[in-house]
Amino acid sequence: MDYTRIAKLHSKVFSTPRDSPEREQTYSVLSEAERAAVFDYDMGIRSGRIKAVKINEQEENGTMTYEQFKQKSDSDEKGVMQELSQFAMKCPELYQQYREKWQAEIAEQQRLHNRRLTENTFKNKPYKSR
Q1: Within 10 A of 70 (CB to CB), how many other CB atoms are there?
Q2: Which of 42, 43, 9 is nearest to 28 (CA)?
Q3: DSSP character string of 74-126
Q4: What is the largest CA-CA distance in the chain?
Q5: Contact residues for 10 (Cβ-Cβ < 8 A; gap 6+)
Q6: Which range has highest mean pLDDT (2-6, 13-17, 83-87, 118-122)?
């Protein structure tokens, strides 16, 4: 079984919004065997039976990967905002997904940092002064 081909089909189907006509259309174009393989691949990834195949399709299309987005969002270099805005104009749904994931990661890091600060602040003090 060629997992890279199935992974490309999987990404093609699941890159469209959930419950949308585009997803239905891309799914209906597949043959019965391809549908079964994509479904099996999706269930295998979700259950952990199959490791997700890294696809360089994003690099082929010229779109940004999440790691590249994260690096560019964290950097203070000149011109990076222009690249991000061009990416947002070219792929608005992907940009939104990346942005939400990145903001969730930053919020989690901030929450953990604040938790460590408060734990260290009240660690050796008596209960009364807490």
Answers
A1: 16
A2: 9
A3: H---TTHHHHHHHHHHH-HHHHHHHHHHHHHHHHHHHHHHHHHHHHHHSSSS-
A4: 70
A5: 38, 41, 42
A6: 83-87
Q: Is 73 left (phi over 0), alpha (psi -120 to 50) or beta?
A: alpha
pTM score of the predicted model: 0.47
- Please give the mean pLDDT across all residues of the chain: 80
CA gap 54, 47 in Å, rounded: 17
Q: Which helix (H) or strand (E) holds 24?
A: helix 21-29
Q: Residue 80: which residues within 8 A CB-CB, separation 6 or more?
A: 72
